[in-house]
Structure of Histidine phosphatase family protein:
Amino acid sequence: MTLNNRYLVLRHGHSLANQAHLIISHPRQGEAGYGLSPQGRQQVACTLANWPCPRPDRIVSSPFRRARDTAELAAARFLCPLNEDIALRERFFGELDGGPDLRYPDVWQQDELNPDHHYAGVESLNQVAERGWRLIEQLEQRHRDQTLLLVSHGDTLQILLALALGLPLGRHRELKPLATAEVRELSLAPQAVLP
């Protein structure tokens, strides 16, 4: 399969949740609060000033405040339309939501064993991959020969990148983790098996 468009992925900048070392994955808290920290705004400004990729024609963002803040800065810089889509929301971390971010490795350990696990009520790798890929399929139907920037969250984007590269989803943490405010291109490998 080949894509009609070029896809870039941008992880949101350092957020108030990162600053507080909290897992904020429920839409109720994530959409209303925990936007970018001052450090995150500086990170995003630096990324945009030194943009290493083609300029996006349009931006699609997670509705979570930290991603939206990041996407709004990018849209202002590139003067392009911005839409939100829940498919790009943070991976839901179940019972760990609102707790300390030092619990992420517990989830990633389970990810390595089973892409369908729901340890502590966490959204499975396959669920995140399916919703992310469904969005790309929709964008493929709506647009052609565009550069589309997807602004989202660490796990959501790591899982999408692993899917596009044809890696087993449980190995998503073997990819170099996206830093806050880091942009990469998402391209399909020939061996990718898509949902």
Summary: Residues 6-186 form a domain with the Rossmann fold fold (CATH 3.40.50.1240). The helical segments are 16-20, 27-32, 38-49, 65-78, 104-113, 125-142, 154-165. The beta strands are 6-11, 58-61, 82-84, 147-152, 183-186. The two ends are 13 Å apart (CA to CA).
